[in-house]
Amino acid sequence: NAYGIAANDMVKECLAQLKEIFENNAKPNYERCIAISTDASLREMIAPGALVIISPLLGGVLFGKNCTAGMLSGALVSGVQLAVSMSNSGGAWDNAKKY
């Protein structure tokens, strides 16, 4: 899975840097670790991003404009409901931490 591959790359980089730090008194290269994490994130977001772009286009071409309108309005309504839910549950968790 993606997490395992990125974590394995990060561990390898950290071990290599640790060896350099102990042997040559080198400074850690934080930018390399950030690059590993960023590259893995971007690589794994290609498929979901393509799905978001291609779904309405494919639905419109195959089933017409009503399909595209329904898909986009359904995504908008469900996104608003999810945002309200997450906002309320986040506030509840924050208030629960105070006790």
What can you see in these coordinates?
- This protein has 99 residues and is mainly α.
- The two termini are 38 Å apart.
- It is built from 4 helices and no strands.
- Helix 1 (2-24) runs antiparallel to helix 2 (30-44) and helix 3 (46-63) packs antiparallel against helix 4.
Q: Beta-strand level of the residues, as a percent range?
A: under 5%
| C-alpha end-to-end distance | 38 Å
Mean pLDDT: 91
From N to C, what is the helix and strand string?
HHHH
Count of helices? 4
Largest sheet: none
Shape by Cα distribution: flat
Q: What's this entry about, in short?
A:
With 99 residues, this protein is mainly α. It has helices at 2-24, 30-44, 46-63, 65-97. The mean pLDDT is 91.
How are the elements arranged and paired?
Layout: H1 2-24, H2 30-44, H3 46-63, H4 65-97
Helix pairs in contact: 1-2, 3-4
List keywords for this structure.
single chain; 99 residues; 4 helices
